[in-house]
């Protein structure tokens, strides 16, 4: 059984990179004109690893994740189970935390995964925040669609009530047609796949990381 339910490993890695580059503006947006949704996964890792903007520790995280990606791809493991992940948890965790931590260090507000219980009149009865360690924090009331602690200027189109939503198809395409390589490109989602992920209304990258933590806790 997969440690991530129906989450596809390769989709999760792709979405985590795209979200980090385009939503979290990794390194002040240094890669928004270099990594696009058509960029092959290995090429994206190589761009990050080869950049002088990326620290030595961050490069080590990307290199470790790239090795795992290639290993799972070579073994056709798209939905790894706990056995597949043994010995890899620290690499996964570092990869999941790298982009949000960079954004926080630059003073950017990073919203937690948030759910809200609504009253019949449309007001918020309760706001529930899922913490990084898998625990939850409950807050009475709240503002519809706004996580607790969000700044007044916070302007995030994500859906908070059912979890933050990340749409890879919203990431800009390369101004030039993506070149072909021997690496597997970030796959183009079919309409049914898009509908399936949208129905969950859940940030795919965050869902991947939380499922990973849950598998080991």
Automatic annotation (TrEMBL):
<feature type="compositionally biased region" description="Polar residues">
    <location>
        <begin position="179"/>
        <end position="189"/>
    </location>
</feature>
<feature type="region of interest" description="Disordered">
    <location>
        <begin position="169"/>
        <end position="202"/>
    </location>
</feature>
<protein>
    <submittedName>
        <fullName>Uncharacterized protein</fullName>
    </submittedName>
</protein>
<feature type="compositionally biased region" description="Basic and acidic residues">
    <location>
        <begin position="190"/>
        <end position="202"/>
    </location>
</feature>
């Amino acid at each position: 059984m997969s440690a991530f339910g129906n989450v596809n490993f390769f989709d999760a890695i792709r979405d985590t990179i795209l979200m980090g580059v385009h939503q979290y503006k990794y390194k002040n947006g240094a890669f928004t004109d270099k990594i696009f949704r058509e960029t092959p996964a290995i090429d994206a890792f190589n761009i990050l690893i080869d950049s002088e903007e990326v620290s030595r520790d961050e490069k080590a995280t990307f290199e470790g994740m790239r090795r795992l990606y290639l290993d799972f791809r070579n073994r056709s493991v798209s939905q790894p189970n706990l056995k597949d992940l043994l010995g890899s948890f620290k690499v996964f965790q570092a990869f999941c935390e790298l982009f949000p931590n960079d954004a926080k260090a630059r003073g950017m507000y990073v919203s937690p995964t948030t759910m809200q219980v609504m009253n019949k009149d449309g007001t918020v009865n309760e706001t529930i925040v899922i913490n990084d360690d898998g625990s939850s924090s409950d807050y009475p009331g709240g503002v519809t669609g706004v996580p607790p602690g969000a700044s007044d200027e916070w302007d995030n189109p994500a859906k908070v009530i059912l979890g933050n939503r990340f749409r890879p198809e919203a990431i800009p395409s390369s101004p030039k047609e993506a070149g072909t390589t021997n690496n597997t490109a970030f796959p183009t989602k079919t309409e049914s796949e898009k509908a399936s992920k949208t129905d969950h209304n859940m940030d795919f990258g965050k869902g991947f990381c939380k499922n990973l933590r849950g598998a080991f806790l």
